[in-house]
Amino acid sequence: MIKDILSFVIGSARMALKGSPWYFAWLGLLGILVVWGGIAWWQQITQGLILSNMRDQVSWAYYIGNFTFMVGVAAAAVLLVIPAYVYNWKPIKEIAIFGELLAISAIIMCMLFVLVDVGRPDRVWHMMPFVGSLNLPSSILGWDVLVLNLYLVLNLVIVAHLLFTAYHKRPYQSRFVVPLLLVSIPAAVGIHTVTAFVYAGVAARPFWNSAILAPRFLASAFCSGPAIMLILFQILRRTTKIDIKDEAIWKIAELMAYAMFLNLFLFGAEIFREYYSDTHHLIHSQYLFSGVHGHSALVPFAWASLIASVIAFLLFLIPATRKNFVTLNIGCLLIYTGVYIEKGMALVIPGMTPDTLGEFYEYVPTLTEVRIGAAIGSIGFIIFTVLCKIAIPILQENDEDRDIEPEPAEAAVT
Amino acid sequence: MMMSDPDRRHGPDEGKVETSVDRRSLLINAGLTTMAAVSASVAGASSGFVERLLRTRFVELSAERKAEILDALERELSERYGREVTVADTPPMDGVEFGYGLDIARCVGCRRCVYACVHENNQSRDPQIHWIRVLRMEKQRGIELAESTAYYEPEKVPEPDAFYLPVACQQCRKPACVKVCPVKATWQEPDGIVVIDSDWCIGCRCCMSACPYGARHFNWTEPGIPSEEIKPDTHYFGNRPRPNGVVEKCTFCIHRTRKGRYPACVEICPVGARKFGNLLDEQSEMQYLMREKRVFVLKEDLNTQPRFYYFYAT
Question: In this complex, which of B33, B149, B176 lies closest to A124 when CB atoms are compared?
Fold first, then answer.
């Protein structure tokens, strides 16, 4: 057993270190970005968060927005796991593992975005249960730490098991891995819900203090994560021998259309309440969509996000455009843009503008923040690239010499 | 004494452990910080060991340990500012619950309280941190935060068409900021003062999101205080100079009021708009005020139940 693990680890390392010049050029480019942003982070650690444009009025911004968006991306796995393992739909089952790889990368990015946002990264261990003083049950961020870690560990274990068994050309242990996959579904819902509750629980910020914030998070997450997956699947089937069927891609796109519909519907419900009741709370939505007293930094982004989401919804809804790969890919990019703006900027910043005493401080990120964000994005891409680099040959090889049909998945819920 | 309530013990104590620099440095390394959250779930496996480690540290927190920590802080601060700085941990007094009263009819918006507070509590001068924010309101509108401004610069105050609403920490009975803190770095003391342990705060700023009164302020960089302006008589939870990267707030001048003195803002106010006292004492100014005047609190709909009362004493 230990020998098997050792050979798996060495074999994986070998696969990660071997590759075409393009592979290394890509990693090199990402590496440069990591260094560039890493230097910015070092400056931020030594001089303080004053290098960001966050201030007391807008005390969470770019980092936390990105964190929130990345929690959504981590949902990609679920949209693949549900059809694959709950409905036992084979075309998706074969590729579900890539959703988990993306989830791992996204969760690590989430943690990094929180790490660069805190004023005292040297004290982050205070949040560790038992060692530190995690404030449960009262702190929602405390719960978020727990569920994010749970979700990360689940996905790590699942992926490690699937790859390990495939590497040794054995069938995977359904009885071990399928229950974990099923647990990962509520865990994914959990990370979104709890992250939404971090905002929704804040009575001082009426823009966030909404009961439908968590459902909106889920709906938008089920669009943004898969949008990356769909583009990735097309790249994979061009560049490798991994077989990804058109129908798998179209099915995912169809599910995304439903999710986007729900997202837009919930958004509309929120907008109706805000504008029709027209209370003092409306000012945050006004700041976002039309600007207030000449403060209008977010207005173009807000509309771009909304328009992109609506167009993408239509492209994914109509079967003809959904099944055309040009329009499908345009739709993916639009969804990605739309949700990135919605969760990345249009949620956090208007929630804090104006601040609780009515002051307008218009936030735009500094270069330091963008550099650090780029570094974290690059780290995520590096992790994802290397994981794929290891997973693809293992799965491909398995594909060729089997069929090692995994044990029938009778454990799957039907 | 603050130890009367066993629950309270938790907060102050764990903060102090961390003042021990050598101990902290043991735990600080890049790997740990990055993976802290990751290991959180892994820790389950070795929780027995970890728990024992934790218990040892808690038990360790004897009176001597605290004294050591305060001594170390005093040495460090005295050296940094080139004069003797004392750091006390004066506990709450029995039978005392502090309350604050502010007469809106009297306040002239001079902002003397703002700067008295800055000096008394060693707030950063560069960049500026103000625990008190004086909002200018239009008389025609009444209290309307959305239309108020803290950046009024007239020749003279008060302006004829304006009145002023100073806002600082409301020392809520149900503090939203305490509830959200992920590491128990902030809590309510038995005398009602909401304090922060700046040696335990991780600077996540959840509390700043949660506070409806903008009362919490962040050290976006190393606070800049000229040595000659340092206030040397300090309290661990109050006006001792705070480090970069942590949140700070008004503590009703904990270093003064726990010794029976008024907060600096009450003392400086040239028009006597600020009142302070023990809510539990029938002879106190605060009880008189609440009996004889009609008071209100800010954002009562949020159910934070402030100990900071506004009134119009006309």
Answer: B33
Residues on chain B touching A150 (C-beta within 8 angstroms): 41
Structure tokens belonging to residue B143 = 């209290």
Determine the residue among A126, A202, A366, A369 to mutate to test chain B binding: the one whose Cβ has the most chain B Cβ atoms within 10 Å. Answer: A126
CA A62 to chain B, closest CA, distance in angstroms equals: 14
Of A236, A218, A238, A239, the closest CA to residue A228 belongs to: A236
For the stretch B181-194, pLDDT in tens is 999 999 999 999 99
Nearest CA to B93 among B11, B171, B4, B187?
Answer: B4
- Segment 119-148 of chain A within 8 Å of chain B by CB: 119-135, 138-142, 145-146, 148
pLDDT digits (tens, 9 = 90+) for A56-95: 999 999 999 999 999 999 877 788 888 888 888 888 887 8
Nearest to A127 among B150, B182, B212 (CB): B182
Instruction: Please give the ipTM for the structure prediction.
Output: 0.89
Q: How far is B97 from chain A (nearest CA, A)?
A: 24
Residue to mutate among A34, A42, A45, A59, with most B CBs inside 10 A, is A59
Instruction: Find the mean pLDDT for residues A105-128.
Output: 94
Check if the beta carbon of residue A154 is closer than 8 Å to that of residue B40. no
**In chain B, whose CA is at the least distance from the CA of A115?**
B34
DSSP code string of B5-36 = SHHHHHHHHHHHHTT-HHHHHHH--HHHHHHH
**How many of the other CB atoms lie within 10 Å of CB of A89?**
16
Count other C-beta atoms under 10 Å from residue A42's C-beta.
11
Enumerate the residues of chain A whose CB falls inside 8 A of the CB of residue B14: 133
> By CA distance, what is A284's nearest residue in B?
B146
- Give CA–CA dist A144/B264, Å, rounded: 40
Q: Which two tokens stand for residue A185?
A: 């579904």
Q: Among A221, A216, A208, A215, which residue's Cα sits nearest to residue A336?
A: A221
CB A148 within 8 A of CB A103: no
Q: Identity (one letter) of the amino acid at A139? A: S
A112 contact residues in B (CB cutoff 8 A): 34
Average per-residue pLDDT for chain B = 84
End-to-end CA distance of chain A: 34
Q: What are the phi and psi torsion angles at A137 (to 5°)?
A: -85, 5
Give the residue from chain B lying closest to A43, CA to CA: B221
A65 CB within 8 Å of a chain B CB? no
Q: Any idea what DSSP says for residue A292?
A: B
- What rounded mean pLDDT belongs to chain A? 90
Q: What percent of chain A has pLDDT over 70?
A: 96
Strand intervals (E) in chain B:
86-88, 98-103, 133-138, 162-167, 186-188, 194-196, 217-218, 233-235, 247-248, 274-278, 295-296, 308-311
Question: What's phi and psi for A323, nearest 5 deg?
Answer: -90, 0
Which 8-state DSSP code applies to residue B55?
A: H
**pTM of the full predicted structure?**
0.88
Distance from CA of A343 to the nearest CA of B (A): 17
Say which range, A132-136, A366-370, B146-150, has the weakest mean pLDDT.
A132-136
Res B50 pLDDT > 50: no
Contact check, Cβ <8 Å, B27/A125: yes
β-bridge mates for residue A88, sequence order: none
Q: Where are the beta strands (DSSP E) in B154-279?
A: 162-167, 186-188, 194-196, 217-218, 233-235, 247-248, 274-278
Token code pair at residue A29: 């480019």
